[in-house]
């Protein structure tokens, strides 16, 4: 159902998380499970490339696939992969493309539907 909302243009994120990674920073393997909604998560990468292990829903350990996310990449995960463990163990210095206007490091903008936004004409949950 969440995937269908994405395809139908009904994906309306109500929260954005901005992570700023300095060279040498990392983010341990974790799940994005704090939202009530299980709509897809969309993450935009800007600046230096990073290694992005994308794994399974049961454990922080393998099996996972190491992906290389470059500046401008949009990574979307939903459906059965919505709660997959993922992280950022490594930022690749000096990989920011020319014209990006970011001196060093990486910015990740992650969009989510929290499930707490009130529908039109209805109060937000308390």
Oligomer: single chain
Radius of gyration: 16 Å
Strand order of the largest sheet: 1-9-3-6
Can you count the helices?
Answer: 1
Number of strands: 9
Keywords:
126 residues; mainly beta; four-stranded antiparallel sheet; 37% strand; globular
Describe the structure.
There is one protein chain. The protein has one helix spanning 2-7; strands at residues 15-21, 27-30, 41-47, 49-54, 65-69, 74-77, 86-88, 90-92, 106-112. The strands form three sheets. Strands 1-9-3-6 form a four-stranded antiparallel beta sheet, with no helix packed on it. The chain has a three-stranded antiparallel beta sheet with strand order 5-4-8, with no helix packed on it. The model has no long low-confidence stretch (mean pLDDT 90). The radius of gyration is 16 Å and the shape is globular. The chain is mainly β and 126 residues long. It contains one helix and nine strands; from the N terminus they run H-E-E-E-E-E-E-E-E-E. The longest helix has 6 residues, at 2-7.
Brief overview, please?
This protein is mostly beta strands and 126 residues long.
Outline the secondary-structure elements.
Blueprint: H1 2-7, E1 15-21, E2 27-30, E3 41-47, E4 49-54, E5 65-69, E6 74-77, E7 86-88, E8 90-92, E9 106-112
Antiparallel strand pairs: 1-9, 2-7, 3-6, 3-9, 4-5, 4-8
